[in-house]
Write a structure and sequence with these properties.
alpha/beta, Rossmann fold, 8-stranded mixed β-sheet, 10 helices, 17% strand, globular
Length: 290
Amino acid sequence: MTASTLHPATGRDALEFVDAGHSGRSVTVHSYRPAACGPDDPIVLVQHGARRNGDEYRDFWIEAAEKHRLLIVATTYPADRFPGPESYNNGFVVAEGGGLRTRDEWIYGIPGRVFAALRASGVTRRKTARLFGHSAGAQFSHRLMAIEAHGTFEAVLSANAGWYTLPALQRRFPEGLDGLGFGPEQLAGWLAYPLTILAGDCDIDTSAENLPRNPEAMAQGATRFERAHYFHDFAHREAARLGLACGWRLVTVPGVGHDGRAMSKAAAAYWFEGRIPPPSELNPAPAPVA
């Protein structure tokens, strides 16, 4: 598979994709393509969590894919090729020693290039895709929107991130945008984008294994739910202070904790049905044992 085309089969598929900027480190594109899905139907790009389980995140979307004729594309960044949070959540931006890698090394451009490869193959004629990320993938997705151009994405949902990059030019990345060479114009563009922050109101476990506990994260709150509110409120305050528009919206998902499956179902219903399902629908009771 070349870096210029990507042609997933109908049903589940998994293809290696060699990004032009990372020739020695391929990613795995896990996809689901319903038989009824055509080239003009919507595409959802999915960012997995810390377990690097793009295959499972793809499967979380299969029910919605069949219902709404969606092409699901979950790109996996294997831990042996992209180790630790710096190589995934934080985009491979900061090098050892604290300096910045070259812009070509940052991985936030990969989803857009995966989408371009789908277009080049003729799988889709869509000009834009939707982007969903949960947990570590939510860290990735909202930082992507801070750094990359927005033209590829018609809608973005960031769900249950462990902590956030703030829209602040005076704080060093990844806490803020300082050091990236960005100025007021880039900040204004990010704030204006209609980013949706999904927050499960039961995502409040302070002892969770993968909950970030670095000082910058702890300053945003003790739980992921608190940090989502901090991020949203900080953005609106900063926009008001600078006289800028802020298109960000915080949406609470009741009865859900740190659950990629439930948050994927909530995101699908929010986008394609205009609703957040009740907890009973997102957390169904287990089937009785015969």
